[in-house]
Amino acid sequence: MTKAIKGFKPDFLWGGATAANQVEGAFDQDGKGLSTADMVPFVPKEKRGLNFAIDVNSEYIDDVLAGKIQDRYPKRDGIDFYHHYKEDIALFAELGFKVFRVSINWSRIFPNGDDAQPNEAGLQFYENVFNELKKHNIEPLVTLSHYETPLGLTLKYNGWYSREVIEFYTRYAETVFTRYKDLVKYWLTFNEINVITHSPYTGGGVLIDKIPGKTSDQIAYQAVHHQFIASALATKLAHEIIPGSQVGCMLARMQTYPVTNHPDDILKAQHDNDLNLFFTDVHAKGEYPSYMDRHFADNDIVVNKEEGDDEILKNHPVDFISFSYYMSMSVTTQGEQEETAGNLVKGAVKNQYLESSDWGWQIDPKGLRVTLRDFHNRYGKPLFIVENGLGAYDKVEEDGSIHDQYRIDYLSKHIEQMKEAVKDGVDLMGYTAWGPIDLISFSTSEMSKRYGFIYVDQDDLGNGTLKRSKKDSFAWYQNVIKTNGEEL
């Protein structure tokens, strides 16, 4: 008789997740080059619509570099993790982190992306960070590319649309694998790799206005094929250079429901889910799924492959699947209905059964259980939730306290559903809450959209002392980790 699974396994990896471009700052220090994220301006809320999307084109970049435009670029400053990393990691250790997800900013290692030699100051910085984590017995989970394509690769090659970028990426991967082989076991190749189809600039450093005569989808799917090959080659390199290493892919999971039980709605939701899971299908199964043949044909998309590409994908699948989960989505074919906001996506229909965050993202904890079960049944590989959190306005009381019960409620409900999924038999490696410390929002470049257990004194205009302080959720998450998720 089999024993029922009751909770998270003893070595469950609890922690938090960040991205270099949202926390580090020091964008022009110690030899770092510009990245695509450094060119994304702050847009005030009154100028953003419901489905605001990052729109950076070649003319804008040229004007910025020529000094004709002088916007604010909050990701250039982040929260100055570059100079505060010891203090921040000490707070993560106090929380009880087992793992900390961080990205390496590619342009800090290879300032232009295609440099012949790496920047030693950049390599040393991340070595210092990883050693600091080791001192506190925290495992690093390192993302190689988290919306941080070196701007030089965008200007010279148009980013991942060029196959030449594969070579520069694998050189970068080999460099950091070799340097950190004794410090980092867990790696992710690309953050939210599917986002390239929603924003080619964000996901791949691609300027679609530089490629006339092709649709955004035609451009994005070609670019992501190059990322698939690069990811497989990086997985191969990691396994060769770092014995026992584990490499995962990373997807922005957009669990999609039909609004009605009309068969057309069900087919529409199934199709949208397939388009989302296409990216993990390639990473985990090592081949393009057959359902994409029709999608490519129907949309005049031709993916140019070179001889040997299929073998590369087949021979080097990922070890585990990681993903972000913030919300679910709903779709319908039955006429126009009220739309809702989402994570770099457009056209989602509001779900009448769900509440929404301050930014209009629909809150669906049970959707996380659905997602975990679907992944488990589809792939049978270990799963890792590497982003989940609530962006909200926080109020600092006169005594400095921050009572963020809304964040505790959001996270506790999601962790409860994780626990249910584990009872269902899902192999779940760990959970890194997004933004354990307040950081610059990627989608809006705001500071006021706060996720952290740790408050950072900085506003949307960059004013503040950068002082770190604990919110109520700090003690709550500390206890969650201490009790391995038993006390929520």
UniProtKB/TrEMBL annotation:
Q: Where is the active site?
A: 387 (nucleophile)
Work out whether the entry's keyword set contains Hydrolase: yes
SUPFAM superfamilies per record: (Trans)glycosidases
* GO molecular function annotations of the record: 6-phospho-beta-glucosidase activity
> Which Pfam families does the record cross-reference, listed alphabetically?
Glyco_hydro_1 (PF00232)
Stored InterPro entries: GH, GH_1_N_CS, Glyco_hydro_1, Glyco_hydro_1_AS
The enzyme's E.C. designation: 3.2.1.86
Q: Per its UniProt record, what Gene3D superfamilies does this chain match?
A: Glycosidases
Question: What keywords appear on the UniProt entry?
Answer: Glycosidase, Hydrolase
Which PANTHER family does this one have? Answer: 6-PHOSPHO-BETA-GLUCOSIDASE ASCB-RELATED, GLYCOSYL HYDROLASE
The similarity comment for this entry is:
Belongs to the glycosyl hydrolase 1 family.
Protein name per Swiss-Prot or TrEMBL: 6-phospho-beta-glucosidase
Q: Which organism is it from?
A: Alkalicoccobacillus murimartini
Source lineage: Bacteria, Bacillati, Bacillota, Bacilli, Bacillales
